[in-house]
């Protein structure tokens, strides 16, 4: 560090206490770590098998707890080609094709937040970015959801809708029919 820079830094620290810090806060003690941090240290994983509207296999997802949230790698087939589709976490882990996957309940929203990235008070925990299908009607993507832990979503489901989420309509983004559903195990 040059002498001039060090002098400026010292002056800034005196003039604006708390604005300049040479150290970062210490890491929290194990008892103070967040649930996300605790789960991340164990390397937890889960899987989800997608079924389509007829109950036929339609792909899979692998979920991994990370320090930043849950990383979801999905590979789904049988979707409309070259089309934006909504991708959410739903309340239950029941994917009954006879109910058009309505058995999965609404979006996972443990805090009662508004739906959507563009809505005031949003997004809620089940919101995730829209995904673009390929020309062959498949999706292969990785999506990070920073609002959940793996422990909070095992026993729930992943859902792909027929349309894209508008990120503001309540309660579900006007995303349309439920095309593929996957219980998280």
Automatic annotation (TrEMBL):
UniProt entry tagged with the keyword Zinc: no
Q: Name one GO molecular function term.
A: copper ion binding
| Keywords attached to this entry | Signal
Give the Superoxide dismutase copper/zinc binding domain ranges.
59-184
Q: Give start-end of the signal peptide.
A: 1-22
Any Gene Ontology biological process? superoxide metabolic process
InterPro entries, sorted = SOD-like_Cu/Zn_dom_sf (IPR036423), SOD_Cu/Zn_/chaperone (IPR024134), SOD_Cu_Zn_dom (IPR001424)
Per its UniProt record, what Pfam families does this chain match?
Sod_Cu
Which family, according to UniProt? Belongs to the Cu-Zn superoxide dismutase family.
- According to UniProt, the name of this protein is Superoxide dismutase
From which source organism is this entry? Haematobacter genomosp. 1
Taxon lineage: Bacteria, Pseudomonadati, Pseudomonadota, Alphaproteobacteria, Rhodobacterales
């Amino acid at each position: 560090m040059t002498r001039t820079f060090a002098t400026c830094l010292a002056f800034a620290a005196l003039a604006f206490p708390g604005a300049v810090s040479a150290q970062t806060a210490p890491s929290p003690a194990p008892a103070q770590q967040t649930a996300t941090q605790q789960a991340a240290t164990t390397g937890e994983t889960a899987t989800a098998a997608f079924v389509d509207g007829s109950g036929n296999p339609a792909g899979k997802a692998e979920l991994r707890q990370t320090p930043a949230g849950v990383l979801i790698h999905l590979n789904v087939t049988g979707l409309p080609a070259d089309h934006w589709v909504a991708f959410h976490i739903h309340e239950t882990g029941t994917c009954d094709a006879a109910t058009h996957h309505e058995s999965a309940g609404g979006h996972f929203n443990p805090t009662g937040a508004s739906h959507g990235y563009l809505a005031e008070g949003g997004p809620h925990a089940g919101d995730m970015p829209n995904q673009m299908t390929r020309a062959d009607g498949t999706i292969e993507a990785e999506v990070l959801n920073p609002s959940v832990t793996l422990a909070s979503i095992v026993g729930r489901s992943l859902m792909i809708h027929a349309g894209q989420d508008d990120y503001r309509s309540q309660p579900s983004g006007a995303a349309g029919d439920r095309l593929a559903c996957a219980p998280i195990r």
